[in-house]
């Protein structure tokens, strides 16, 4: 070996020794942290009768926000937050493993959102439909549920909004996920593709790409994009529009990557549970409202929000399907229901609205 090669080997060995030593220190610290989480569990179990709330969303976001603020690189803020997300997920699983229901089968973006929110130690349960997720959490069979609510290209997921009208569940968190769609198949190329399966939202997100590259292929909506991937395993003339996770799980070829029409295509998911999330300092509140069906009704309904200086980040209207109200409105505002300005505004709103249901106050997504 040349002299140069030799000194390179030595330099490499020295840095690797340093890395080995650091890894042991990190391991010790992580183990110490995990023992602290066990102590926390012990304290919580002692302090609370009945159901113990091991999962504390407001504390988790406080930990992640603090880490991001303290970070000085070279890893970027998102990356360090992701690492700490996983450490906390493992610590929480030691207190008690959490279960989260998602729109299955395995490999959907909803599963990816559940893991992004809770970390990899959460036990995910695949369910076939959005209303099944609500029922699973309502019955207590799962601790939490994760449901898609809106996509930046395609708009609202109406099934989710409709489920909130009759469900007693609360929104306890939100997750935003960049959604990259892939064209998956057992076929080697596009030439033989006659059918394209996916969730209707995913088909819509790739409409222009499909018009251009597969203009004659039939588009068939199914219950989820992972279900589409599962279907094409036994249909060589078909392709699925789905995520990379589905390609791995069902061992399909990626015939085309990132086929979404909007490169910034993002889906927002909601985390649902039985308990409210306490204030975290940076929160959102989701409301369900109905107003009198008369001129200026909606304006009067929203006036208290403006009067209290609250920012509205979203408003959606849906036919109520109940016959009591014509339309209901889903409104998101910044702030927690326990913040004085929000609670004052809600009191005024209650007098104006035919219906006011606070669907939940929850921390603004950190990751
Ligand atoms: O602080 C707590 O209440 C904990 O249970 C500890 C911890 C953590 O690992 O930091 C774990 C789970 C909770 O959701 C929040 C934080």
Task: Give your account of this protein's structure.
- This protein has 12 helices and 15 strands.
- It has 367 residues and is of the alpha/beta class.
- The chain folds into 4 domains: 3-94, Chorismate Mutase Domain, subunit A (Up-down Bundle), CATH 1.20.59.10; 98-179 and 266-272, Periplasmic binding protein-like II (D-Maltodextrin-Binding Protein, domain 2), CATH 3.40.190; 182-256, Periplasmic binding protein-like II (D-Maltodextrin-Binding Protein, domain 2, 3-Layer(aba) Sandwich), CATH 3.40.190; 279-362, Alpha-Beta Plaits, CATH 3.30.70.
- Strands 1, 2, 3, 4, 5 and 11 form a 6-stranded mixed beta sheet that branches. A 5-stranded mixed beta sheet has the order 8-7-9-6-10.
- It starts with a helix and ends with a strand.
- The mean pLDDT is 92.
- Bound molecules: prephenic acid (PRE).
- Residues 37, 40, 55-56, 59-60, 63, 88, 91-92, 95 line the site of prephenic acid (PRE).
- Catalyzes the Claisen rearrangement of chorismate to prephenate and the decarboxylation/dehydration of prephenate to phenylpyruvate.
- Residues 286-363 form the ACT domain.
- Pathway: Amino-acid biosynthesis; L-phenylalanine biosynthesis; phenylpyruvate from prephenate: step 1/1; Metabolic intermediate biosynthesis; prephenate biosynthesis; prephenate from chorismate: step 1/1.
């Amino acid at each position: 070996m040349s002299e140069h090669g030799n000194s390179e080997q030595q330099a490499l060995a020295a840095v690797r020794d340093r890395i080995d030593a650091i890894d042991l220190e990190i391991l010790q610290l992580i183990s110490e942290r995990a023992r602290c989480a066990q102590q926390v569990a012990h304290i919580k179990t002692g302090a609370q009768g009945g159901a113990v709330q091991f999962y504390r969303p407001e504390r988790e976001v406080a930990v992640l926000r603090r880490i991001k603020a303290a970070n000085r690189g070279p890893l970027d803020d998102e990356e360090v937050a992701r690492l700490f997300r996983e450490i906390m997920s493992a610590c929480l699983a030691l207190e008690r493993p959490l279960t989260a229901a998602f729109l299955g089968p395995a490999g959907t973006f909803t599963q990816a959102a559940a893991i992004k929110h809770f970390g990899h130690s959460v036990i995910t349960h695949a369910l076939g439909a959005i209303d099944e997720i609500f029922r699973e959490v309502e019955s207590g069979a799962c601790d939490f549920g994760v449901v898609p609510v809106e996509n930046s290209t395609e708009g609202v997921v109406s099934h989710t909004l409709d489920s909130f009208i009759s469900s007693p569940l609360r929104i306890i968190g939100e997750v935003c996920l960049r959604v990259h769609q892939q064209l998956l198949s057992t076929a080697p190329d596009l030439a033989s593709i006659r059918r394209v399966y996916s969730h209707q939202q995913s088909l819509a997100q790739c409409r222009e790409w499909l018009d251009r590259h597969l203009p004659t292929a039939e588009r068939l909506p199914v219950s989820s994009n992972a279900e589409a991937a599962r279907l094409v395993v036994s249909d060589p003339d078909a392709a699925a529009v789905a995520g990379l996770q589905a390609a791995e799980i069902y061992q399909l070829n990626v015939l085309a990557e990132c086929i979404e029409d909007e490169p910034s295509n993002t889906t927002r998911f909601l985390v649902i549970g039985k308990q409210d999330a306490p204030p975290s300092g940076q929160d959102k509140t989701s409301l369900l409202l109905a107003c009198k069906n008369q001129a200026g009704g909606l304006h009067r309904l929203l006036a208290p929000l403006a009067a209290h200086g609250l920012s509205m980040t979203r408003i959606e209207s849906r036919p109520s399907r109940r016959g009591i109200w014509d339309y209901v409105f889903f409104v998101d505002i910044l702030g927690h229901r326990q913040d004085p300005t929000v609670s004052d505004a809600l009191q005024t709103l209650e007098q104006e609205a035919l219906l006011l249901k606070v669907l939940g106050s929850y921390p603004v997504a950190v990751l």
